[in-house]
Amino acid sequence: MATPCPYLPAGERKLSWRELNALREDQGAELYLLCLEYGQQLWLEHLPARALLAVDRALYCDVPAAAECLKKNPLPYVAIGWLVAQPTTEFTGNARVHYQHLADRVKGERAAQKKWRAWAAWAVVRQVRPDLPADPKHAVFEPSLNEIKAGLESHGIAGEVDAWQRALTSGA
To answer: Which residue among 39, 90, 156, 163 is least enclosed by CB atoms within 10 Å?
Structure first.
């Protein structure tokens, strides 16, 4: 049995992509919590890459800073760091490259917010797994921590920079 992520809700029910898909038009607090719960479930089912994708989906939800769900379940930067830092041979791919590609390719509604959140997650991954290399075939400008902070201040929600900085210093 995998150790539950202490930064994700326990999840009392068995979920599938269908529950998440039912909320595809409403990217708010209900989907946010569901994605975090599903991420925990996938983690416990030894599906770490899929768990990370579920947590990513939560990170991209449109949840206002005052939402009740964020009090108990803050934006999942620490959870991302914890998941990526865990010793496992089950991860496929490279989380650093994953976020590098997300940040550089995000489009659509709230693209700037999603871009800076992806760069923030990328910085967390670099902190907890400095051994993961960048994608040498993907020429992209990698922002500094100060640039990521400024991006989150401009496009994130109140308290987001603090949540991200906690992840950088937690050592997940």
So the answer is: 90
Q: What are phi and psi of 118, to 5 degrees?
A: -65, -45
Q: Which residue has the tokens 């569901």?
A: 34
Distance CA 60, CA 92 (A): 22
Angle at which helix 77-85 crosses helix 160-170, to 10 degrees, equals 20
Q: pLDDT per residue over 68-112, tens digit each?
A: 999 999 999 999 999 999 987 777 789 999 999 999 888 888 999
> Could you tell me how far CA 55 lies from the centroid of its own chain?
5
With contact defined as beta carbons under 8 Å apart, do 155 and 119 qualify?
no
Enter the DSSP assignment of 25.
T
Name the CA radius of gyration of the chain, rounded.
Answer: 15
To the nearest whole percent, how much of the chain has pLDDT over 70?
Answer: 91
Query: What are the sequence ranges of the domains in the chain?
Result: 17-170
